[in-house]
Design a protein that fits this description.
Length: 485
């Protein structure tokens, strides 16, 4: 069991490298934006990109997944799918471009910013016509080319953002122009096998597979980004800007969950029929929660210090955005619950009961929308993180409830409960608002993190074989140090 779990960890690192690099490059823009965009301006950027995230699903309507599913007929499938996406993307973008003021008013950003709708229409078009070539690279196992293009385009995007905002002082428009040019570069850099061929029967098969994915995609996206448009309506542009900057500080947890997810799916699919696999899956969830709770505690304790860190005489995050730092711990633990949800999807995917995944995402979306409307008027920017936390809890519960019917996994709820209990006990002083002098506060945080595995040992979390394995590793490590000395 330990060998298989160790292999999963190694695969997570390998599969996640390109995604981590891309997300980190994008993350670098957030501190930069806080210094060159006012909170209201950054709020407009965040709201528009939230709308674009929804529209991307509609523009692409699962056709990349359908193409990969019908890759056995790759020549006809690519041309048919690409023709569909090309035509519909032109129509969708024309609809946006012909009535930009209407869409700007409807989106809550004001007709005065209708030019940003035109940028969004162009970016959506370029990204949608490139989704199938990227899928083709994945199916052809050209992973290095795939990752290289992604990293190149994101690097160019970061550089252009800096040039347009610092050198040319273009403000919000510079952000969208940089994204437009990097999307154009991506289209030019990815090869295409397109020919003007359209197979009607294959088209029906593609659509039968693709369209059911749209509701699930919209539901999942709603949980992730619906809070920005709602916050824009209820609290204004500045609130969205402050919220977005601090929400993005949860990226470190996002990276870990994303890396794990990319390795987790092939791992459990390959081992689904092996004897004892449910026990392995249950143990993985326990170890996953153990590691991520520890990470979430560490980030919650020290991210405010990171935000205020002075770099070249400036704080990493501009002080205009500091009032939102209190939301970061909730965001981190919301992503932790999302990671647990990712674990709990395994039984449904193994049993091919994906309709219940759609049910989970739609339930999460409904909770997210309802909770945001209920909490934002009362708590402002502190409402959406709790709405996300509640939505991911509902999604995890639905996935577990239905998953146990088709592929029972003996999850270790007692041990998971001990993890939660110890984490709450260690964080209790901070949750109660205790903030002593800087030196004592630092000591408390370091001691709490160091005490996490010790307290778990005291309350009986670790199994005998885990204690033996840990002791063996410690002895090897200490003996290695002695030899080195």
């Amino acid at each position: 069991m330990f060998t298989e779990i160790k292999k999963l960890g190694a695969e997570s690192m390998v599969y996640g490298l390109s995604t981590v690099g891309a997300r980190l490059l994008n993350f670098l823009l957030m501190p930069f934006y806080t210094h060159y965009l006012l909170p209201a301006e950054y709020g407009v950027v965040a709201a528009i990109f939230s709308y674009m995230a929804f529209l991307n699903i509609i523009y692409q309507y699962g056709m990349d997944q359908a193409y990969m599913r019908h890759y056995a007929h790759k020549e006809k499938a690519f041309s048919t799918a690409y023709s569909c996406v090309l035509v519909t993307s032109i129509l969708f973008s024309l609809c946006l471009a012909v009535f930009p003021s209407f869409w700007a008013e409807l989106g809550g950003i004001g007709a005065v910013r209708s030019n940003l709708v035109l940028y969004a229409a162009a970016i959506l078009f370029l990204d949608s016509i490139n989704v199938l070539p990227f899928a083709d690279l994945r199916m052809a196992h050209k992973s290095f080319y795939f990752a290289g293009v992604r990293m190149l385009c994101i690097t160019v995007n970061v550089i252009l953002n800096i040039v347009f905002l610092v050198r040319f002082n273009m403000g919000i428009e510079g952000v969208f122009l940089a994204n437009l040019l990097s999307s154009l570069l991506s289209v030019l850099a990815v090869p295409k096998r397109f020919s003007f061929a359209f197979d009607r029967e294959l088209f029906r098969n593609l659509m039968d597979y693709a369209l059911p994915l749209v509701p699930a995609g919209l539901g999942a996206m709603a949980v992730q980004v619906i809070d920005r448009p709602i916050l824009l309506r209820l609290a204004g542009e500045s609130a969205v800007g402050v919220y977005q900057a601090n929400y993005r500080l949860g990226i470190f947890m996002v990276l870990v969950v994303t890396m794990f997810d990319q390795a987790w799916r092939p791992f459990f699919i390959e081992r689904a029929d092996k004897p004892g696999s449910p026990v392995v899956f249950a143990r993985i969830l326990t170890y996953f929660a153990f590691a991520l709770i520890w990470l979430a505690l560490a980030l919650s304790f020290f991210i405010p210090d990171l935000a205020r860190l002075q770099v070249a005489g400036r704080a990493l995050i501009h002080q205009n955005y500091w009032p939102g730092l209190s939301i970061v711990p909730v965001v981190l633990f919301a992503y932790l619950i999302n990671g647990i949800y990712v674990n709990l999807l395994a039984p449904l995917i193994i049993a091919k009961k994906t309709k219940f995944i759609m049910l989970a995402t739609l339930a999460g979306a409904a909770v997210s929308v309802g909770a945001n409307f209920a909490l934002i008027p009362v708590f402002g920017i502190f409402g959406p993180p709790w709405a996300a936390f509640a939505a991911y809890c509902v999604m995890a519960f639905v996935a577990y409830y239905y998953g146990r019917r088709f592929f029972p996994v003996p999850y270790e709820f007692r041990r998971l409960g001990l993890l939660g209990f110890v984490a709450l006990a260690l964080a209790a002083p901070a949750l109660a608002g205790w903030r002593p002098g800087s030196q004592a506060w630092l000591v408390y945080r370091l001691l709490a993190l160091a005490a996490y595995p010790f307290f778990l040992f005291v309350v009986g979390f670790f199994l005998p074989e885990e204690k033996e394995k840990s002791l063996s590793m410690i002895l090897r490590w200490t003996s290695g140090r002695k030899i080195a000395v």
